[in-house]
Write a structure and sequence with these properties.
By secondary structure, this protein is an alpha+beta fold. The chain contains six helices and seven strands. It has helices at residues 2-7, 15-33, 58-68, 102-114, 117-120, 127-140, and strands at 12-14, 37-43, 51-53, 76-85, 88-95, 145-151, 155-163. The chain is globular, with a radius of gyration of 16 Å.
Length: 171
């Protein structure tokens, strides 16, 4: 995992390679949380060759684990799905954690929509999401990026919207 990070910091990789990296990160989290953490990863095979910015998904997954889960639940569930609709790809990172109030979700989505780092980093909790969001908008265009859905005490979904970009060569 460390070598992957060092070698690919500015790289564009396949989504399949990025998912392998996320799986390695999740294996470490399984060691930490044991049976308490239940992980489901499901991605349409058709999107695995899409070109993506290196290390854009792991910070979102880490954010879900760090901010979403509480010690009160017997099972923390993390689901990562990927699907394609035409030339659009949607990756969803969903947890069954503490969720967020409607007002907080609206505020966060407004900041993400603005795409401005200054707007996004006012709240230290959203630095990881804001960084990934800006990277996705810069890479795929302003229509792409992150959107959040949540229900307090139920779930949070981080929806990453990207475009299909076929892999040319390498990873």
């Amino acid at each position: 995992m460390f070598q992957y990070t060092l070698r690919n910091q500015e790289a564009v990789v396949s989504l399949g390679k990025e998912l392998e990296y996320v799986k390695a990160y999740l294996q470490l989290q399984k060691i930490r949380y044991g049976e308490k953490l239940v992980i489901r990863l499901q991605a349409d095979e058709k999107i695995l060759q899409c070109r993506v910015p290196f290390n854009f998904l792991q910070p979102v997954v880490e954010n879900s684990i760090h901010h979403g889960f509480t010690e009160h639940r017997k099972k923390d569930r993390l689901k990562i799905t990927g699907s394609r609709e035409g030339d659009e790809v949607f990756l969803v990172v969903e947890d069954n954690g503490c969720g967020m109030k409607k007002e907080k979700v609206m505020e966060l989505n407004q900041r993400l929509e603005s795409g401005k780092i200054s707007e996004l980093t006012e709240n230290a909790k959203s630095i990881g999401l804001s960084n990934v969001n800006v990277r996705l908008k810069n890479f795929y265009g302003k229509e792409c990026g992150i959107r959040v859905e949540s229900q307090p005490g139920e779930f949070t979904k981080i929806i990453l919207h990207i475009r299909v970009m076929a892999q040319k060569t390498g990873g």
